[in-house]
Amino acid sequence: MTRHSSPHAIPSDAVQLRTEDAIRNLAWFRYNLRKFLRFSEKAARQCGVTPQQHQLMLGVAGYTGRGTASVSELAEFLQERHNSVVGLVERAAQRGLVRKEHDTNDRRFVMVSLTEQGEQILAQLTELHKEEVKAAKEALMKVPKVPAQVLEVKKKAI
Question: 118 and which of 82, 107, 114, 155 could share a cystine (Cβ 3.0–4.6 Å)?
């Protein structure tokens, strides 16, 4: 034992293994996340909206539990700047997906809700996502030692 190590110190090879596991877990998580996002983006476009408009409609309908959301709440949900969300809401309103109304208690706040068209498109997208969400959840729960996709790619390369 060196003079800087404690009797309870984790051996460096164990730390390395944990780091490798953490890297593999993160890589697998990001791979499955990106795979899901690509599916979701494609589904949105097939339904005639942009991926950002789909996310906006999800935020309006589901983020607060009220079926309506302020622009500030949507900025938080979307992890975007307030002024970017103002533009997104404006474009979605022009497309007939959402409606904007001033808050009755404080006219400085703009509340956003879905139109009937927005509700229909969101319902359609939600149906399209059900199986993909289930598959993504299952994939994220298990991290393979070597993903089957990697083995398949290696076989094709040989």
Answer: 114
Q: In this predicted model, what pLDDT tens digit does every residue of 47-84 receive, in sequence order?
A: 999 999 999 999 999 998 899 999 999 999 999 999 99
Identify the residue with better confidence: 82 or 27: 82
Query: What predicted TM-score, i.e. pTM, was given to this entire model?
Result: 0.75
Q: What is the pLDDT of residue 147?
A: 53
Going from the C-alpha of 114 to that of each of 97, 98, 106, the distances in angstroms are 6, 4, 20
Q: Could you tell me where the beta strands, DSSP code E, fall in 48-87?
A: 68-70
Domains and CATH numbers, the chain: 15-157 (1.10.10.10)
Encoded amino acid at 133, one letter? V
Q: For residues 52 and 50, what is the distance between their CA atoms, to the nearest angstrom?
A: 5
